[in-house]
Amino acid sequence: MSEPRKIHPLLKPALEIGPLIVFFVLFMRMRDKTVMLGGTEYGGFIIATLVFIPVLVLSTLVLWRLSGRISPMQIATLVLVIVFGGLSVWLNDPKFFKMKPTMIYLLFAGLLGLSLLLRKNWLQLVMSEALPMQDEGWRILTWRLAALFLALAVANEIVWRGMSETAWVNFKTFGLPAIMVVFFVLNARLFERHALPKDGE
């Protein structure tokens, strides 16, 4: 397997977060408006989704072209965005796109739990180069992350079913990423406790 090519450290997060920002900005500008396309009236949420899908596809292809690698998480996210986002646009129904994070988090939680049951820690295989830890540390982190994904799936269902579209868009754009950042910050002690010894130690 070829080694991933190095790209500018700011370019990778820009390509990953950029499509979500595009969706957020477009939704906020179009949320109280409607657009007539092909004789059908579409609300701002659907228009933002319609733009978000090709932007995400393009950014993923650019990232792949520049780095030579796409993670399994990015592939799964892209497929689910195309499927659920496409259903929302095709059926003119926002609920399918709002369900997408739930499906993603349930998928990730299931895969992480399955990997532990099979005693093959896939998270460790994917992230071990970036975060060198002992096997026990990876086992603990995987269980915690699986539990977090389950909690996020439930949270997404509560927000999109019980709150406004604007609240859901804010939750998805800012709340979910912030929760992930806080999760890894809170696990800093775990990383330190189970870190692999450096050369000479």
Automatic annotation (TrEMBL):
Keywords: Cell inner membrane, Cell membrane, Membrane, Transmembrane, Transmembrane helix. Pfam families: IspA. InterPro entries: YciB. It is found in: Cell inner membrane. Belongs to the YciB family. This is Inner membrane-spanning protein YciB. Plays a role in cell envelope biogenesis, maintenance of cell envelope integrity and membrane homeostasis. HAMAP family: YciB. It is a multi-pass membrane protein. The keyword Oxidoreductase does not apply. The chain crosses the membrane at residues 12-30, 42-63, 75-91, 103-119, 140-159, 171-191.
